[in-house]
Amino acid sequence: MPESAGLLDATELPRLFDALRERGYTVVGPTVRDGAIMLAELGSAAELPYGWGVVTGAGRYRLHRRSDTAAFANSAGPQSIKDILHPPRARLWSADRTADGVTTTGPDRPPRYAVIGARPCDLAAMAVLDRVLSAGAYPEPIYTARRDGVFVVAVDCTEPAATCFCTSMGGGPAATGGFDLAMTELADADGHRFVVRAGSPAGAEVLSALCVRAAGPRAESEARAAVAAAADAITRSMPDESLPDLLTGARESPHWADVADRCLTCGNCTMVCPTCFCTTTEDVADLTGEHAERWRRWDSCFDLDFSYVHGGSVRRSGESRYRQWMSHKLGNWQAQFGSSGCVGCGRCIAWCPAGIDITEEAAALSAWRRSERAQPCPP
Amino acid sequence: MTEPVPYRVTTREAETADTVTIELAGPVLPEFRPGQFAMLTAYGIGEVPISLSGGGSGGRLVHTLRNVGAVTAALYAAGPGEVVGVRGPFGVGWDLASARGHDVVIVAGGIGLAPLRPVVAALLARPADFGRVSVLIGARTPADLLFPADLRRWGRHAQVEVIVDRPADGWAGDVGLVTTLIPRAEVDPAAAVAFVCGPEVMMRFVAEALRRRGIAEPAIGVSLERDMKCGAGWCGHCQLGPLLLCRDGPVVRYDTVEPLLRVREM
Ligand SMILES: Cc1cc2nc3c(=O)[nH]c(=O)nc-3n(C[C@H](O)[C@H](O)[C@H](O)COP(=O)(O)OP(=O)(O)OC[C@H]3O[C@@H](n4cnc5c(N)ncnc54)[C@H](O)[C@@H]3O)c2cc1C
Ligand code: SF4
Ligand code: SF4
Ligand code: FES
């Protein structure tokens, strides 16, 4: 793997797309759609969101025009690499009745995707999903097949949003692993260009098909400075303590009722979260009953039916469902999969219609626990 | 592990008004151990977790299931020759090794006897390896009692006690909650292990009664039920705090789950 960085002119991006397509990849990347930066199959590099920026806040996401032509100077959108590798709907199998029983066909072979513009928090989320869906005793077939074939072109974050807190979860803003190529975008008086590095032999091979010059110390240090400035610009953070301990200690906190007053239990946070992996299944049959299929689709722990067992749901109240979500992300995930379930991307904050902010709720729980500990005697 | 393996129903026996035991035959899968479960598919309807109630090797599986909804209704109706999809074995079963050399108390409520039946069978098959066996069973009514033939057979080698919530004409046995049988278990509590399965509230009361009897929480195994959509650790439905019950359960040591069960709506 080449250690020294290369310099790729923005005008080379179409060649990158071509090189990936020639190698059999379906290219997916960010593009402006419905007032947001979405992930879609891209026909050409021209569809990238050149000159678009994003402003986010709690319950807020707005596009705006930038003064430059940067394509990736925008933070994580409502979708993530999860949407590609762990799609919202997929067929698990189909079965046909035959004279001597049933013949079953497994999932379709997925295309090999090249994901352009994956964020460092996407890479962190992919590492989390690898643990959840591929590293257990039974690798999940859809994710694992897509993951095995994927080619990732990551982009370091230079324009984090107000909702980002990856620095406090160890996810960004620099891409540190899990990519085939990683780029830092520079768009200034010296032109629109990318300092690029390969993270895998496949990445190095693709680079060899492009016109890459040596970046040189100046571009390299500009790139480093841009990412360092991004890290400095991130102000949100999680409380500096063991989050699993915090959440375990806060199971009976009255604060959950306070969140429940605001939470609409809509499940938006779980849909946009790049690590929320929960699914349910739907079995369907044709009218004759000779052909049956099982589909798997995203589900959310905010849904009342999510915990349904004969006789009723386990988590009926909104507060118990919010507690499940936050305790899973920040606490129980660690016991279940050996990592945090939150990478600090801030999507759940921006896309919460009620503007609920997981960092503020964690801070509130932390304050409650401190006040509990301060009590000399239990009430 | 994604696609169900087609098995055929070989026998179907009604246990009670709403419960059947079906025997399935099909391609050999890894061995199912007592307490483990299968995901059973009624094609075109859905898939549900059902414990092993007998068999488990050589392509032969026995399941006892209660008709409570769409999928169990379809499985309940499946007669000999019909095809049922099987995935498994899944989960952690009863820790029989922990019972070696010890007295064993088995406490079952309702359909909870189904996953315990292979445990009793395993204990009685190797009497030299275990101490005394006490089987305490609660049922709603005498007509809801499962496996009467097994109970008679077990009674020759083990203590078997039955209690019903509501008696019927001709019932001369005990009436009340299964917890009332616990003081009667003929075991040495200081050196006994317990395996418990039934409704969650019943298991909590049973564990408390066992504790009062002198059987410590770490020696109590319980089998828990949560919604399960995959059995394989993929769907997230079976969470109980830090546990994924399809993977870390369904059988768990009571001392590890007691603090979790105590929290409302966990
Ligand atoms: C490990 C394990 C072992 C088990 N072993 C046995 C056994 O040996 N024998 C036995 O009889 N049972 C056993 N069970 C219980 C059995 O799995 C359930 O009874 C079964 O899943 C019910 O499915 P159903 O479709 O028939 O019932 P339903 O209640 O109709 O369906 C249950 C599922 O359908 C959906 N659903 C249906 N209605 C609603 C609604 N109103 N709101 C929301 N969702 C709804 C939910 O997704 C729910 O998960 C076991 C359960 C577990 C977890
Ligand atoms: S919980 Fe929120 S901040 Fe954390 S990874 Fe999920 S969407 Fe991002
Ligand atoms: S937070 Fe909820 S939806 Fe997300 S992974 Fe956990 S249980 Fe599933
Ligand atoms: S049943 Fe799907 S994760 Fe446990």
Automatic annotation (TrEMBL), chain A:
Residues 252-283, 333-361 form the 4Fe-4S ferredoxin-type domain. It comes from the Bacteria. Keywords: Iron, Iron-sulfur, Metal-binding. The keyword Metal-binding applies. This is 4Fe-4S ferredoxin.
